[in-house]
Structure formats: C-alpha cells, structure tokens
Amino acid sequence: MQHLQAWNSYRGEENKIYYFRTQKGSEVDFVVYGKDTFVAIEVKSSAKIKDEDLKPLKAFLQDYPECKGIFIYRGKERLKKGDILCLPAEEFLLALDPQRKEIFK
Hints:
alpha/beta
C-alpha cells in the first residue's frame, strides 16, 4: 500500500486506491482507479500461485472486464494466468514509475 500511495502521490493524486470486498466476502487487496488507470491487485506472501488465490481477482474481472488484474507474489516467475498478470513482488515494485500513466504494462 505504501508504494502505491507514493506512486500516486508523485503523480499528483490522479487515482483513488480502494480495498474491495463483496457481500459474499470475496476480497481484492487494492483497486486503483482513475482517468487512465483501472487495476485490481492481489498480494500474497507465497512463493507459489494457487488457483484459490486468484479467485477474488477472477470474480472482480468478471464484473469489471475493462479492469486489468495483477497478482503479486514472492515467486521468481512472471506469467499470465488467464487475464491475470502474475508478477514477483520485486519486479512489480522496481517497475512502479510515476512518470508512466499505467501501473504496470
């Protein structure tokens, strides 16, 4: 959260950062929304990606197909699981750049 807030602050607070929870209890850690940005981010402290960890993002993306989904984890491999980009935490954090409009390409 701290890194996302810093990135947003350097950009002039162009986006809002939300926590999302449905009535059924499905949660997404961060939803970053703004004029040029709509990204749902799930963060896990695991080195492996489990299908159950992706369920909240998948549900969110079904309701908001225009949103990009990013799963951040402690593994070493960058990969795609359907519409979700799975990134090592280090790669994600090093790529956060306030000069770019998008959080991650």
